[in-house]
Design goal:
This protein is of the alpha+beta class. It has helices at 3-12, 25-28, 49-56, 58-72, 86-97, 117-125, 145-157, 186-192, 235-241, 244-254, 260-264, 266-269, 276-281, 307-312, 319-332, 350-353, 357-364, and strands at 35-40, 76-82, 103-108, 111-112, 140-144, 163-170, 176-181, 201-205, 212-214, 226-231, 355-356, 384-388, 398-399, 406-407, 412-415, 425-426, 431-436, 440-445. It contains 17 helices and 18 strands.
Length: 446
Amino acid sequence: MERVSLINRIKSAGIVGCGGAGFPTHVKVNTKAEIVIGNGAECEPLLRVDQQMMEKYSEKIVKGLEYVMSITGAKKGYIALKGKYKEAIKNLQIAIRNSSFTIEIFILGDYYPAGDEQDIVYEVTGRIVPEGGIPIMVGCVVDNVTTLYMIADAVIYNRNFISRPVTIGGAVKDPKTVWVRIGTSFKELIEYAGGVTEPDYVVIDGGPMMGNIVDENSVVKKTTSGILVLPRDLRFIQKKLRSDRVEVRNGKSTCDQCFECTITCYRNLLGHNLYPHKIMRTLFLEPESYSEESLLTMSFLCSQCGLCDLYSCPMDLSPRKVFRFIRQKLMEKGIKNPHKRSDLKVHPERDFRRVSIKRLIERLGIKKYDRPAPFVEEEYIPEKVRIPLNQHIGAHAVPKVKEGDSVKEGDLIAASPEEKLGANIHASISGRVTEVKDEYIEITGV
Ligand code: SF4
Ligand code: SF4
């Protein structure tokens, strides 16, 4: 298939990044690149999707990588994953041997956040993405391995993005990873995993570090890689439940300038002008006095990885939430990120300061939930789905159906608005459209 046809197929299938951000893939790959990296790091504790996808579907993932290399003209491709994913490495090696493209496996250390785009680009290529920049600025495109699978599925089988693999884990009786239709309720899936084993719990959409605590009536989106049930009384859960405003107040009164947040900040270790402790030091300033010259603008360089928040700070503060709050206030004043340096040097102690997953799991207090969540062969198909229209970066998709319409699995039900960043959305089950709202379309199976 030609370049334009490949991009159009990816666009019409509604593919967005499966790793969490949900950036529309047809826009990301529509560029010229030297290197494409398949991101199989899966560094969030307790998630078991990408590692098993690479094990089970190595050929398709390599195929997806080949398509992105063809589109971008990249001469070199990598699949970067952790050395502990032994079966995946073995299967990928076989798939790569059968490929005519120049593809290599790159072994990452077992640390957090090895899957961050900027960190992975440095690890694999030695290139440092400029402050506030994206990988293509150093000639790289990074795609999550499940996204690569979706690309291959769309191109080879003409399938649209209507289901995805999800790990249902944590405090559930029978943790598992399963293909789930988009729009399936979390509550239903938690029951499918044997139900909850703790009396008082919360539900997280994604991993413990970057995932959000959500209502259990939430539904699976294209970006949902995990549904984690965890006890409410875990210290880090209590912290996640606190508001940004409360964290700002606590930061003003309690930060002792110990520097721990800066020591482990991986963006600081990559040479970025991000010194979390210095931002905390200027918290006494009121939002009215925020300016483009202030140290507070370093907040724009924070990726919200959560290390300073859930791992480093001995005073139980949350620089991450504080920076989110500051960034919001700066943007409300029309102040944009002034940090754009590209002459960066990694910190000489980077290798020693990185945070191992083992230590992270201990600190979060979730060791007892660090269990296998094996792939279930059959797909989970619910009787009803509620498909969100805003499950990606960009504009809401515009409904193309009305209540009472009959739809077949895979039909287009909402389209990306013309000339805007967005993604198409398709019916994830066959049935009747029972509700069309600004936020979602509900389909009841027949
Ligand atoms: S959340 Fe904290 S550790 Fe992570 S990038 Fe932001 S400041 Fe650095
Ligand atoms: S780790 Fe906590 S107490 Fe120490 S400087 Fe950072 S925010 Fe302040």
